[in-house]
Amino acid sequence: MTFSDLGINENIIRALQGNKISKPTDIQIQAIPHILQNNKDLVAVAQTGTGKTAAFCLPILQTIDPKLPKIQALILVPTRELGIQVAREFFLFSKFLPRVFAESVYGGAPIDEQIHNLKRATHVVVATPGRLIDLLDRKALNLDDLKYLVLDEADEMINMGFKAEIDEILKSCKKEITKLLFTATMPKDVKQLIKEYLVADTVEIRINEEELVNEKIEHKYLIYPKSRKLDYLKAFLNERTAQRGILFCRTKIAAKRLSKQLAGFVVSADAIHGNLNQESREKVMRGFKKSRINLLIATDIAARGIDVKDLDYIIHYHLPEKAEQYTHRSGRTARAGNSGLAVCFIKNEELSEIKSLESQLNIQFRPLEVTVPPESEPGTPITIYMNMGYAQNFDKESMREFLVEEAGLDMVDVRNVVVEESRSYFDIPPKYQEQIFLNLKGMKLEHRNVKLTLDAENSKLNIY
Ligand code: AMP
């Protein structure tokens, strides 16, 4: 089966070839002819990594009229990263078509700029639901000529609390618009959306129904003894310095903290989480895509829509709360036909959770061993002096919190904190010296660069 057999035109096929895409995937084989020929609503149950974006992007590109400078397709996505990714595919695959313009709009970025961009001829809008409503309220876009409405990762949009916004958007759309709904899972709320807003004889296609998880992924678990999790992670990474992957944490705080704990480590790591502003997120993502960063530390929400090819592994540093999250996370590796490894870091008592994932997802885990150096002696604590004190609004408690949050230390490792007018000092185990210097030195607080020293005399002068 070729793209030409599916009815895709030469110009789009040329663009696909330029991106080394020559053979359609299962979902493309099923969805493309349907969208091109029938123009009927469609539900596709498919995970990320199956080529689902191109499955709707290609037939839409082929059907819209480039000469009509109106929005003809609207793609709703759960996150800005996925939005950028989807708009990028429209851009890449329309390279040899008459000018087709796709714009992505999402929350967390200045709305004025997006309003300005939407004034230009735009054929396709990719949007997060909240921002789209905002833009509609401000009359920044007009959907009168809409032909297609795509709900991409519908289950995830619902999980993220966008149900009310989706209802509002669907209610305001004309009946005759073709609706295409893509979802990895079929929870109750998604079923209800289909029943309420899609035509009654909607076609449903399912990909990999039997194996819920991509079969090219190898599943492993690594048991770490209490208090040695970071050492085990470093040992795992040390054996894979030339590889790249994503590590999942359950919370933003944990993600940020881990990136601090890995400062200076041979495998370069950085974190992407909801607390970062758009500019910082994009900077981290650029670093990861360009391989300046080998390990991306992420929370579940921040990782949605990330499409980076050739990832070797996924680390579940904290186990996911639900089995379907395991599928979503692990689906970031083994994309587009490659194989990959998903590894869960667990304590002995969490083995039962691995068993439960095995039975829910019909997959098999194997144990993974790593060579971990013996635990080093803590050594005599060292005293670190810092040029911040009461004058910068620190007291003992906030200083400890600052060290935990910004340098990634454990609360118990920070001892004997003394805060003075414009300096503070505290004791830490010597193994944290590099970590603390790398994370704090040069940081700006109250217009003052943070400076650190081990030299008590110098610190009194506050000029270090
Ligand atoms: P998706 O499932 O849409 O997130 O796509 C996963 C990745 O597969 C993206 O990087 C696509 O560019 C790529 N891809 C899409 N279709 C194909 C195909 N037919 N052959 C190889 N790679 C593809």
Q: What is the number of strand segments?
A: 20
Tell me the distance between the termini: 69 Å
Which CATH architecture of the largest domain is right? 3-Layer(aba) Sandwich
Question: Which range best describes the helical content: under 10%, 10-25%, 25-40%, 40-55%, 55-70% or over 70%?
Answer: 25-40%
**Shape label:** globular
Write down the CATH class of the largest domain: Alpha Beta
Give unreliable regions as ranges.
none
Rg of Cα set: 25 Å
What small molecules does the structure contain? adenosine monophosphate
CATH topology of the largest domain: Rossmann fold
The overall average pLDDT, rounded, is 90
Number of domains: 3
Report the CATH superfamily of the largest domain: P-loop containing nucleotide triphosphate hydrolases
Biggest beta-sheet profile? 7 strands, parallel
